[in-house]
Model the fold of this input.
Amino acid sequence: MFLSYKYKEFPVVGILLLINIFYFLILELNGGSKNWLTLVYYGAKEGISISRGEYWRLITPIFMHIGFFHLIVNSIGLIVFGPIMEKIFGPARFTLIYILSGVWGNIFSFISSVSVGAGASGALFGLAGCYAAYLYINKDDLGKFGRESLVGLTWIVGINIVFGFTVSGIDNSAHLGGLFSGFIFGYLLAPRILTTFVSQFESMEINVEKKVSMQRPLLLWVAFVITNIIINFLVVRITINAFY
Done:
């Protein structure tokens, strides 16, 4: 249903959902999505392989899921947060935030454990962190809606973090990596809302409040992405030299 009536409005969210489903079917048809050998073969995060130079394993796990329940939970998270963020940032910027947050989530997971890992949770927590930053920096212009949304989002994230620490098999390091990186991305790159006043509207003298969302300059985004790639590489290399 979501893909049928929202695809044109939120194309990236629809594409990500399709990629996740397609990747999941490939895993299921080739040994099973819960088979660690299959997961490693098809690109899961695995410390030893990354230490040997397979850095692409920091990206591919973002689109992989271990079991049907894992896929459903993360798909729901993408459907909840994805459209909001794609509308705020636009398709291209939204894609960058999603992937970069997911990569940072996998880097945190790589630092904390050599075990096999996969899932979009880091990217989703990144979206949540980025949205929280957007609400925070624009709290004055968003008013009551912004404050209530930020409080509600904080509760949702907090409950999920606590849940992750109390249940085995959940990679909370990936969640925290995505969350922290997403918040930083949002704080630096989220559009600023400017409030202007229009004195005339359709030939009538009236005072109209208009809120305009201003995207950050493209050059800042380019510099930020390049800086991220460099820092990603350095952190991974330092981790390999220190622990592998």
The domain at 2-243 is CATH 1.20.1540.10 (Rhomboid-like fold).
